[in-house]
Amino acid sequence: MIMTIPEAIKVRHSVRAYIDKPISEDIVKQLHEEIAVCNAESGLNIQLITNEPKAFDGLMAHYGKFSGVKNYIALIGKKSARLEEKLGYYGERIALKAQMLGLNTCWVAMSFSKGVTKKRCIVNKEEKLVCVLSLGYGQTQGIAHHSKPMNDLCKINDTMPDWFKAGIEAAMLAPTAMNQQKFLFTLSGDTVKAVSLGGFYSNVH
């Protein structure tokens, strides 16, 4: 049975430890196709790297409790004021696709070697490697993170409509750096405004 996006949102958790199991050619192909669509829509240069363990073989990776990482998705794009926001949106879209394909992921900002990653990627002069998604078959499926109360994450002037509530519930399940959840959604009429409240990598998440 094919997993839906809402189902993937509910079951996807950050996973840092992976088993030694290669990703099949068919799944790699589907990931490349999804990444190609995302890049075409966004103008980003996101890339999938497989069978490369060195980026997660340093002290920072061990400090971050990563193990068995041999595959990752490099989140790269042309430098701009909105680069992190775009990578956050499309990166999570790809993470959910990976979850639907039976894989696990984790957003990684610091606990990997950018030097090693850049040697395996194409990062053009005007582009920046912001972070990566570790990728593979997790030793576990991860655990749900603690979330702030819904009322702390949104503001409304009237009764909360079902569609807005569903969106906030999805945002509550989304990964954020250090689980900060530094965002605020405001509903005015039928207009939704999303604002980053600052913090470590808050523009990405």
Helix and strand topology:
Layout: H1 5-11, H2 25-42, E1 47-49, H3 59-63, E2 71-78, H4 83-100, E3 104-108, H5 114-120, E4 127-136, H6 150-153, E5 154-156, H7 162-173, E6 183-188, E7 191-196
Parallel strand pairs: 5-6
Antiparallel strand pairs: 1-2, 2-4, 3-4, 6-7
Helix pairs in contact: 1-4, 2-4
Features:
7 strands; alpha+beta; four-stranded antiparallel beta sheet; globular; 20% strand; 205 residues; three-stranded mixed beta sheet; 7 helices
Write down the Rg.
17 Å
- Helix and strand content put the structural class at alpha+beta
* Oligomeric nature of the chains: single chain
Give the DSSP E fraction (strand runs of 2 or more residues).
15-25%
In a nutshell, what does this entry contain?
The protein is built from seven helices and seven strands.
Please, could you describe this protein's structure?
The structure is a single chain. With 205 residues, this protein is of the alpha+beta class. It is built from seven helices and seven strands; from the N terminus they run H-H-E-H-E-H-E-H-E-H-E-H-E-E. The strands form two sheets. A four-stranded antiparallel β-sheet has the order 1-2-4-3, sandwiched between helices. It has a three-stranded mixed β-sheet with strand order 5-6-7. Helix 1 crosses helix 4 and helix 2 runs antiparallel to helix 4. It is globular. The two termini are 30 Å apart. The model has no long low-confidence stretch (mean pLDDT 88).
